[in-house]
Write a structure and sequence with these properties.
Length: 108
């Protein structure tokens, strides 16, 4: 939906993923959308160079999250939320409702 505005579908998916989950790493995003890791890494690097995202190292993994100092962060997140609201429920379930932690032991 926003790929025309952001320049590519990968860029849209990366930003939408971060909007929903607040932070993430390239391999998880690539796995979630079944796209190549290098495409996701390129987008993340581009957004970090542009000041939209910041990264930090956790072990050997680079975790990306929103840059709170980015001047248009509120407007961007608002646009992403509106786009998320217009997505069909099936797509939201497929890409944006994943579990971020394991189930409690013994729970069905």
């Amino acid at each position: 939906m926003l790929e025309v505005l952001f320049g590519s579908r990968t860029a849209e998916r990366v930003l939408m993923y971060l909007h929903v989950y607040e932070s993430g790493f390239a391999a998880a995003m690539a796995r979630n959308f079944s796209i190549s890791l290098s495409m996701v890494q390129n987008q993340l690097d581009k957004f970090e160079q542009g000041g939209i995202l910041v990264s930090r190292k956790m072990g050997r993994t680079r975790i990306f999250e929103w840059n709170p100092r980015y001047p248009f962060l509120e407007a961007l997140r608002s646009l992403l939320q509106r786009s998320l609201d217009y997505l069909p429920e099936s797509i939201r379930e497929q890409y944006y409702r994943g579990r971020s932690r394991p189930r409690r032991w013994g729970k069905k």
